[in-house]
Amino acid sequence: MFKRILIASDLSPVSDAIIGCMTNLKTLNIKEVVLFYALGFRENDEVSEIVHQQVKPDLERQQDILKKEGFNVSLALTDGMPSEELKRVCDEKEVSLIVMGSHGHSAFTHQFFRIGGVASEVLNSHEKPLLFLRIKNDASGFEAASVNLKEKILFATDFSDISMYAFEYLEELVKDGVQNITLMHVQDKGRISGHLEHKLEEFNHIDNERLLLRKERLEKLGATNVEIKIPYGIPAQEIINEAHQGYSLVVMGSQGRGYFTNVFIGSVSYKVARNSDVSVLLVPERFRE
């Protein structure tokens, strides 16, 4: 599914952990890796050249590790601003997935999220699926929180077109062997409480029928254990709470109607990616392969 991916490295221990666990991500059929680092300079001058020479050996070290794991690896060490260069390199290399490490709040202290408000730029404008790979830190150091991302998946939907794009990705994962899935739609307490609570049972019935149709599609593709959950509450918190119940990956659209309106600081997608204990795959509106 993800033949060519881009790893956004900041040469931190979390980035090293991503590199170290890439052999486990071969279950996603990854063949090629673009190892990306942006220096954050507007102009190529003597300072940028000095930093370039300082950074390159560490990037080549990560490249060597990936090559030993059997990946075809190319380097993309650029001078420009991260969000701009990320989009350019993804387009030029025809990347199908962007991978970034997440360790607590550390994903959002990554260089992409430190430079000039890049957080909202990257998350709000990314045109490729974005995987926040959850990294844990224990006595043995940094490592991936889940060895097999396809072990048990939580799919959160608001029934928007964008969520359907994400569902198509879920279908591809099922074709690749995913068996255990929970389909989840949160009845938004903020929208329903007060004047629509008397219709909650009706909403639940309608949305359960929608999820049953998706369940049938997944079962026809080979999924053997598909659950449906429709909690009532605050969407981001309900998704995060459920994600803590032994899942290996959360899949969701990164834009849409309802509570997936946009990906920006404070949105559901941002909150889930930031606070989930497991890896999160965000599929954007513009991505169709």
TrEMBL record:
Could you tell me which residue ranges the UspA domain spans? 1-133, 151-284
* Signal peptide start-end: none
Q: Which domain of life is it from?
A: Bacteria
Fetch the Pfam families from UniProt. Answer: Usp (PF00582)
Family assignment?
Belongs to the universal stress protein A family.
What's the protein here called?
A: Nucleotide-binding universal stress protein, UspA family
